[in-house]
Amino acid sequence: MENRIYFDNGSTSWPKAPGVAEAMSELLMGGAFNINRGNYEGAYAVEGLVLDTREQLGRLFHMPDSKHVIFTPGITYSLNYFIKGLLKPGDHVIVTGIEHNAVMRPLNQMAQEGITYDAAPTDAEGNVNPEGLEALIRPHTKAVIVSHASNVCGTITPIQEIGDICKRRHLFFAVDTAQSAGTLDINMEAWGIDFLAFTGHKGLLGPQGIGGFLISEVLKEQLNPYISGGTGSQSDSFEMPENLPDKYESGTMNLPGIIGLHAALSHIEKLGLPHIHAKKLDLTRHFLEGIKELPNVRIAGRQDLQNRLAVVSLDFLTLDNAIAAFELEQRYGIMTRVGLHCSPLAHKSLGTFPQGTVRFSFSASNTAEEIDLCISGLKDLLR
Amino acid sequence: MQIIQHYVLFPNHDNGMRLYKELKALGVRATIAPTPRVASKCCGISLMVEAEDIDTINQCSKEHGIEILKIASVERDVNPHRDKYC
Lengths: 383, 86
Prior knowledge:
The complex is a heterodimer. Chain A is an alpha/beta fold. Chain A is 37% helix and 15% strand. Chain A has twelve helices and 13 strands. Chain A has a seven-stranded mixed beta sheet with strand order 2-8-7-6-5-3-4, with helices on both faces. Chain A has a four-stranded antiparallel beta sheet with strand order 9-10-13-12. In chain A, strands 1-11 form a two-stranded parallel ribbon. In chain A, α3 runs parallel beside α4 (101-111), α9 (273-291) packs parallel to α12 and α10 packs across α12. Chain B is of the alpha+beta class. The A-B interface holds A 35-36, 39, 41, 44, 47-48, 51, 54, 65, 67, 231-237, 241, 243-246 and B 11-15, 17-18, 20-21, 32-34, 41-45, 65, 67.
């Protein structure tokens, strides 16, 4: 992509980690044998790599027992597993004001079956108020689902505090790490997370089509498998196995995706999360300083570096946001995402509904030079 | 001569792969194999192991929280006439 600047890492990261494409290609060319089915050495070798990947994810999210790591086609699937596998008519759920439609749409579907929900107070910078969240707890509240960081403005949710509330009030705690995994250190055990949903293709730098969740022992007893079918184990029974990970992994898995994710996680382990986070924040600092004096542009969300990720949303006050995004791409090769980012609730909290924003989301592969080119493009566009 | 083969049986593949990995690290010989139908009807993998390693294997699985269904002893029966009735 010569002369193109990719600032849409919030949608999917690019470039992927070194070795991802090679690992996937090697599997597909050399023997993409099916695990839990094939009874030969090649299949066992792939199975070993899948186990290694579970262990990498266990280390990343501080889950000592890696059989509690479940693979799905993506984080939307994972959240559907939680919402549709756990909630029963009459149950109440609390979300935040920055939730993605990956949570809101399944919840609304479930509302037709008697599920109710409330959104915790969230200010115009995307900050969620934990006390306000606690005040929404009712006798029949069953779970709290929170996005770890806004995919619109990058503001980080205080999940440790919310986890403490959930522990104290005996509620299941589910966290959507779509934007934070691979950047922030997330401690599932220490923070009392029962269900941690992740995607492989954003901050984890893996391919699309692979994600999953990590589940606590307590939740495992209550979460029904939303999808059922063959697992290659206990095949004499029509019942789903209770053992993990089989209980939630029916059908053939996305093995090229898992092997690609394995390569990506090895790269992340080598770099280290503090390095990745610091690099992204440096780029964000540079961008925020550069756009400070721009006329007729409003930053949606926090304007500083505190408590945030490398996601910045701009609302162009004298220009249609879609036209601004189009011109940035056409004139300067800057790729962004415009609109509501599948998060109408977040845009309502931020005061950018329905016009949406133009979102710039950086990865550790971006450079200060690219930020400079973008700032100069923005200045030119708004002249 | 009758040859007895020992198989470690698991509730699923994941447990089998885990034990295989741990045993390899300990230098204990184990071979992944399909579970003999005579030992279990539930499919899946098993580990073919030596009789003298069984105590170590039981200890290793306990230490690492690996679930084992049982260790089955199966006669190694390669009979060319099996299931041939005419």
